[in-house]
Design goal:
This protein has about 290 residues and is α/β, with parallel strands linked by helices. The protein contains nine helices and 14 strands. It has one domain: Ribokinase (UDP-N-acetylmuramoyl-L-alanine:D-glutamate ligase), CATH 3.40.1190. Strand 10, helix 5 and strand 11 form a beta-alpha-beta unit. The longest helix is centred in the last third of the chain and has 15 residues. The chain starts with a strand and ends with a helix. Its main location: cytoplasm. Its cofactor is Mg(2+). It is an enzyme of class 2 (transferase).
């Protein structure tokens, strides 16, 4: 089976700080790095390193070839990434403090310039048994989700950054919604908990995660593995990508949750987002040492 991912591609500019700045405050950076990011690229890399076949649907500028090269090195298929001469590659300014908390500013660039016709062409082979992953950092979300659902594919939508109107547009076509606890509360306040989807994947940070199977009424819970975090950027993307890869591989939700929790635990012990995603061998080795 194949995971198609309609997702953002960003260049992450990461600044290490003693504390996050307050309004009007200027703080000198302790360190600066540049890396691969964007919720879409992060999830594609996570799923590919989990062992899934991943085709990324997205766009970037005509510069920055190193970004596509890193996706390819992570075994993500990139032939369906549009290179746009009139748009810059998306980028993010990420501030990370010494407690591993972060604040992020995103410029979408090419991520919001995707063309419906090109996406329809890229999805012509999707079918039953395949998965479409999506996040709220591109345009053409509802249109692409509708195409995937009509083809019989599973649609996993990460409702982040959280906005209710894009979510409402995608909801009729979604199979699983992936949210953190804050996003879930915002959704429930707007639409209630009786949602027209098969399941809810809700992450709770250091308190673990849960998968609510809305077809059976069963809730699967997974505690977080205790590690020393140095950077939480991309942890939710790591979790979602690994969970999607687990379902694609035929794992039950409990197993997919456990593997995703282990992957996210490893990811937060490293600096960076997409570049920090662990591979399957690393996750299985980590789990051998867990109760």
């Amino acid at each position: 089976m194949t995971i198609y991912n309609l997702g953002s591609i960003n260049i992450d500019h990461v600044y290490r700080l003693p504390t996050l700045p307050q309004p009007g405050e200027t703080i000198a950076s302790l360190a600066y790095t540049r890396g691969l990011g964007g919720k879409g690229a992060n999830q594609s890399v996570a799923a590919a390193r989990a062992g899934a076949e991943v085709i990324h649907l997205g766009a970037m500028g005509t510069e920055d070839d190193w970004v596509e090269e890193r996706l390819t090195a992570a075994r993500v298929q990139t032939a369906t990434i549009a290179r746009l001469s009139n748009e810059p590659t998306g980028h993010a300014i990420i501030l990370v403090d010494e407690a591993a908390e972060n604040s992020i500013i995103i410029h979408p660039g090419a991520n919001r310039a995707l063309q419906e016709k090109a996406l329809a062409q890229a999805l012509k082979s999707i079918g039953a048994g395949d998965t479409l992953m999506m996040q709220n950092e591109t345009n053409q979300q509802a249109e692409t989700a509708a195409l995937a659902k009509a083809a019989g594919a599973r649609v996993i939508y990460s409702a982040a950054p959280f906005q209710i109107e894009p979510l409402r547009a995608v909801l009729p076509h979604a199979s699983i919604l992936a949210l953190n606890a804050l996003e879930a509360r915002a959704l429930f306040a707007e639409a209630g908990e009786d949602l027209p989807v098969e399941g809810l994947l809700i992450t709770h940070g250091s308190d673990g995660a849960e998968y609510r199977d809305l077809k059976t009424g069963q809730t699967h819970r997974q505690a977080a593995f205790r590690v020393k975090a140095v950077d939480t950027t991309g942890a939710g993307d790591c979790f979602a990508g690994w969970f999607a890869a687990g379902l694609d591989r035929g794992e039950d939700p409990a197993t997919a949750l456990r593997h995703a929790a282990a992957a996210a635990a490893l990811q937060v012990t490293r600096h960076g987002a997409g570049d920090a995603m662990p591979d399957r061998a690393e996750v299985l080795e980590f789990l051998r040492n867990q109760p």
